[in-house]
Amino acid sequence: MARKKKDKMLKITLVRSPHGRSQPQRRTLEALGLRKINQMVERPDHPSVMGMIERVKHLVEVE
């Protein structure tokens, strides 16, 4: 299924290290595609993505 041009995209940046965090938090970051500090990825504004961001909101910045 192709994305429409109107779909809003979120810019997610990893700003704190996942070192010492729980396994579910590290796996959530990996699922978002974040592996290095200051790495930025774009993901669609979708409820499942928002749920992942909520779990690691203390480690990321969202635009």
Main beta sheet strand tally, sense and closure: 3 strands, antiparallel
Count of DSSP helices? Answer: 2
Q: What's the CATH architecture?
A: 2-Layer Sandwich
Distance between the termini: 25 Å
Rg (CA only): 12 Å
Strand tally:
3
Q: Order of strands across the biggest sheet?
A: 2-1-3
CATH class: Alpha Beta
Strand content: 15-25%
Q: What is the count of distinct domains?
A: 1
Give the fraction of residues assigned to helices.
25-40%
Give the H and E element order.
EHEHE
> What would CATH call the homologous superfamily?
Ribosomal protein L30/L7
The averaged pLDDT comes out at 94
Determine the CATH topology: Ribosomal Protein L30, Chain: A
What this model shows, in words?
The protein is an alpha+beta fold and 63 residues long. It has one domain (14-62): 2-Layer Sandwich (Ribosomal Protein L30, Chain: A). Helices cover 30% and strands 22% of the residues. The protein contains two helices and three strands, in the order βαβαβ. Strands 2-1-3 form a three-stranded antiparallel β-sheet, with no helix packed on it. Helix 1 packs across helix 2 (47-55). The longest helix has 10 residues, at 23-32. It is globular, with a radius of gyration of 12 Å.
